[in-house]
Structure formats: C-alpha cells, structure tokens
C-alpha cells in the first residue's frame, strides 16, 4: 500500500489540492462489451493501419514523440477522417466509470483537472452531484471566475470530445494553444503555487505537466513538492531522481500488478484518511 504523505492528506482535506487525472485513470473503464479506452500510443498505432508508408510514423511513436506523430497522422488522414476516428474511440463506446473514478470523486476535491478528452469522470461526477459541478475548457473565457467561486470545478486542459475541432492533440495545436489561451496556462501556474497537485494516471512526458512544473520551480523557487504516482519500474531510479529535482515532484511508486489494484486500494485508504481529518477539522476548526 502507498504511504500517503501527511501534507497530501492535509491539503486534500482543506481543499488545497488539484487532482490531475491522466489517461491511466480512464484505462480502468470498460463499456458494455468489455472494451477499454486506448492509450495515446495505442490510439495512434490503430490510426496508422491504413497509412502507407508508415515507417516514419512508427519511428516517431518508438521515440515517444507522440505530438509529432499525431500531427503527421492528422495531416495524412485529413481533418474529417481524423475527427471521425477520435470520436469513435473516445465518445461512441460509452465507457462506464470504474471504481477508481468513484473513489477519486469521494475525495471531494474542489478542483479536478484532466487532459483526457473522454467524459467518463465528469459524467459520473455530475450524476453524483446532481449536475452541480462546473466543467470548463481551456478556451473558456470565464475560467478565472469559476476558480474564484466556491463551486466544484473540472478543468479540461486539452478540451473535450464534444468539440473535436478544439482538441489539443497535435504539435501545432499545442503550439497554438500556448499563445492563444495563455491566460489559462497562467492560471494553472498560479494554482501550482497555491495548491498541491496530485497526479494520478499521468506520465512525466506530458508537455503540459513538464512545462507547468519546471516553470513553477525555476521561476518561483518553489520548495513544496507536488506528487505523482507511477507504477514501479516505469522509470529507472536515476531518471526519477532527475525528474524530482527538475520538476519539483515527489514520485511515489506502486505495484502495477493485477490491473493496478494497489492504486485503487491506496486511493480508497486515502479517502478514509481525508474523511477522518475533515472530522477532526470540524472539532478543532483549524481550517
């Protein structure tokens, strides 16, 4: 089981934590036929089936250059066909929420952020909250108002499958978004200075995560670490040390065996720890 840092439990209890959900969380979901959402790598592999030649794209995928690979795939397939296969993968299958989604919702974080295009978590969360959770995209002009308010909010960092034309998926789209929606990224940076980010189901190669954490560390000399959970052996220990030092991250490893059951059990325990601390806060009023 994961040993949760006391600071993480405290920050979630006091709602000073942003829970950041990556594609690894969506992978826990299935639809009625047992189908699971593809990872970014798996999606791009399936997308190049009818592209020939494809060796240049396969090399990009092997080198983990998914942004460029996606850019090439989208151009070769054409915008209309690419949009069709994106919707077919992330919307049409109607994936159901998994136990991990339910436990994350039980943490009752005021702010949840995700680069995932799918609607698995937000659909479940709003069904449980009777539609009271606000969902904001990176291109919305009133994100700051929602952050300043008191309502629960889900930030869709890369957009939603409901608006495939506005997804941030390729290298060009990343570059455009950084300029066109710079205020949104400035808001994320501000949150990284005032809140602890807990990254679940994410990888260290996500461009947004790298830029966000490196900027907050070197611009502001931040000393309080954010937290990322990763399966054991996904990174060499020497690489982990470098990432922790340059991204201001506390990387906590867990066993990925049995479909990452240790992660689910650990988040379940985290829910109990947070609820116990909130009960204590009711008594001592030390908010």
The general outline is globular
Q: What integer is the average pLDDT?
A: 92
**Helix coverage percent:** 40-55%
Low-confidence stretches: none
Rg: 19 Å
Question: How far apart lie the N and C ends?
Answer: 28 Å
What would you give as the CATH superfamily of the largest domain? Answer: TPP-binding domain
Could you say what the CATH architecture of the largest domain is? 3-Layer(aba) Sandwich
Summed up, the helix count is: 14
CATH class categorisation of the largest domain: Alpha Beta
Give me the strand/helix succession: HEHHHHHHEHEHEHHEHEHEH
Strand content: 5-15%
How many domains is the backbone divided into? 2
Taking the sheet with the most strands, its summary is: 7 strands, parallel
Provide structural commentary.
It is built from 14 helices and seven strands. By secondary structure, the protein is of the alpha/beta class. The protein has two domains: 214 residues, TPP-binding domain (Rossmann fold, 3-Layer(aba) Sandwich); 51 residues, no CATH class. It has a seven-stranded parallel sheet with strand order 3-4-2-1-5-6-7. β6, α13 and β7 form a beta-alpha-beta unit. α4 packs antiparallel against α5 and α5 packs across α6. 33% of the residues are buried. The mean pLDDT is 92. It comes from Halomonas alkaliantarctica. This is SIR2 family protein. InterPro entries: DHS-like_NAD/FAD-binding_dom.
């Amino acid at each position: 089981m994961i040993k949760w840092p006391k600071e993480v439990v405290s920050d979630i209890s006091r709602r000073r934590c942003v829970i950041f959900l990556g594609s690894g969380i969506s992978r826990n979901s299935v639809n009625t036929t047992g189908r699971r959402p593809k990872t970014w790598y798996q999606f791009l592999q399936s997308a190049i089936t009818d592209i020939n030649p494809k060796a240049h794209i396969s090399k990009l995928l092997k080198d983990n250059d998914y942004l460029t690979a996606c850019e090439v795939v989208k151009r070769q397939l054409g915008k209309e066909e690419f949009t069709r296969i994106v919707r077919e993968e992330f919307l049409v299958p109607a994936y159901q929420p998994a136990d991990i989604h339910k436990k994350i919702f039980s943490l009752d974080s005021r702010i949840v952020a995700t680069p995932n295009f799918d609607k698995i978590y937000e659909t479940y969360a709003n069904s449980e909250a009777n539609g009271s959770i606000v969902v904001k995209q990176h291109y919305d002009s009133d994100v700051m108002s929602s952050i300043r308010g008191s309502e629960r909010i889900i930030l869709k960092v890369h957009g939603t499958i409901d608006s495939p034309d506005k997804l941030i998926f390729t290298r060009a789209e990343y570059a455009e978004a950084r300029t066109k929606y710079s205020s949104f990224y400035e808001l994320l940076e501000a949150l990284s200075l005032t809140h602890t980010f807990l990254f679940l189901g994410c990888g260290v190669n996500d461009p947004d995560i790298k830029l966000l954490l490196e900027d907050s560390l070197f611009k502001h000399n931040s000393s309080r670490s954010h937290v990322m959970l990763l399966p054991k052996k996904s990174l060499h220990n020497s690489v982990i040390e470098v990432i922790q030092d340059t991204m201001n991250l506390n990387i906590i490893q867990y066993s990925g065996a049995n479909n990452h059951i240790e992660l689910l059990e650990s988040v379940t325990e985290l829910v109990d720890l947070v609820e116990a601390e909130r009960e204590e806060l009711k008594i001592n009023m030390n908010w």
